[in-house]
């Protein structure tokens, strides 16, 4: 059996459903003075992060090809938080809508001292997005490219 190792972040995405169009709330002549707040209909918490998304896509790809080209070997995959093996994830559960966390049901992002950037996003009616990030544990983001002027 071949093994694939995926390295990356594991976290949660909190997605809010905004039932309207964001463009209806922004005035082109006031873009330099943006101050908005939106009421949303729902908030959903989904497992996310780069490693988790890659594992999910890989799992879906393998499932697709295993239907086209049957194999005696299935795919068995686990994702482990680098901090501790206590926070194992079974990626097979990602496609079944079940909690992918191991026997304790713990959130790996809760590990003490771990660097976390928590995104919160709202998705509009046409798929447009507004994303906010909360930095905790004093994460240094000065190295991240920032646009000085968007328009």
UniProtKB/TrEMBL annotation:
The highest taxon in the source lineage is Bacteria
What's this protein's name?
Answer: Carbohydrate kinase PfkB domain-containing protein
What species is given as this protein's source? Answer: Candidatus Roizmanbacteria bacterium CG17_big_fil_post_rev_8_21_14_2_50_39_7
């Amino acid at each position: 059996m071949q093994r694939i190792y995926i390295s990356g972040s594991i976290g949660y995405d909190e997605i809010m459903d905004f039932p309207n169009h964001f463009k209806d709330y922004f005035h082109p002549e006031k873009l330099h003075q943006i101050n908005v707040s939106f009421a949303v209909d729902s908030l959903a918490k989904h497992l996310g992060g780069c490693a988790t998304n890659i594992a999910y896509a890989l799992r879906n790809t393998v499932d697709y090809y295993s239907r086209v080209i049957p194999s005696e070997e299935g795919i068995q995959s686990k994702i482990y938080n680098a901090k501790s093996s206590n926070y194992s994830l079974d990626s097979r559960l990602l496609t079944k809508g079940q909690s992918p966390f191991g026997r304790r049901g713990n959130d790996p992002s809760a590990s003490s001292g771990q660097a976390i950037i928590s995104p919160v996003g709202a998705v509009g009616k046409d798929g447009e997005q507004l994303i906010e990030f909360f930095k905790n544990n004093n994460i240094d983001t000065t190295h991240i490219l920032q646009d000085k002027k968007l328009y």
